[in-house]
Amino acid sequence: MEDQSILYPSLPAILFLAFMLVFLSKTRHKNLSPSPPSLSIISHLHLLKTPTHRALLKLPQKYGPIISLKLGSHFAVLVSSASVAEECFTKNDIILAKCPKSLFGTDTSAMTLEWAMANLLNHSKVLKKAREEINSQLGDERLVEESDAMELQYLQNIISKTLRLYPGTPLLIRHLSSADCIIRLAKRVVSLALGSIIQCFEWERVSEGKVNMTEGKGGATMPKAQPLEAMCKARSIVNKLLCGVE
Q: Does the keyword Thylakoid apply (predicted)?
């Protein structure tokens, strides 16, 4: 009885708040772009199936290049048109410069390295050519260094193509910058790591079949559906250099 006596007087306030929320949600957002059908409470969150970038790719094909989405209590706009994207980040760049707080993955470099090696194992001629480039420029007197890796053109082409085909973060997660800057640390790390494992080891697939290149479910990142497994053995350059270490 006491619970009911407390509940009844509060009903008008609850109904008033519910009315205001519905009213404000309908009046605050005008001239919005087309929007897919939504569900109550979760809105359009049910459309974000994994892999997320593939799910978002299908929406513009049905609803057009500019789509309004409501993700829970937040509104978002999905832009797949180059001209509209240019307008967003030129005329309205300051307005759209704010980046929401997010948790970002720390394994994108390792993921890129895994995709690159999987591709190389499926294309042995490319792997052989990359090793020949390293041998011709460095010989067998020393291991590849960071400065060397950035100058190995064929190796850089392999990494660039890997990033085009299998980007570690297929969804553009924007950052806020207060000044122009050049950041290439991740590419340097991947270049040095890939150059080192090509130079130091002979690589083979674990089976006669090609490595499975199916994309996994990673949300904002794009891992492999099946982790890479490969066989390797040290090349003679490793024994030679290790014998020279005192």
A: no
Asked if residue 243 has pLDDT above 50, the reply is: yes
Gap between the Cα atoms of 215 and 219, Å rounded? 11
> Using one digit for the tens of pLDDT, what is the confidence trace for 25-70?
554 555 677 778 877 777 777 777 777 777 777 888 888 888 888 7
CB atoms within 10 A of CB 76: 12
DSSP 6: H
Contact 187, 159 (CB under 8 A): yes
3-class secondary structure, 201:
strand
Residue found under tokens 């407390």: 6
Which of 123, 112, 61 is closest to 218 using CA atoms?
Answer: 112
Beta bridge partners of 69: 76
Domain ranges of the chain: 32-97, 108-243
CB 219 within 8 A of CB 52: yes
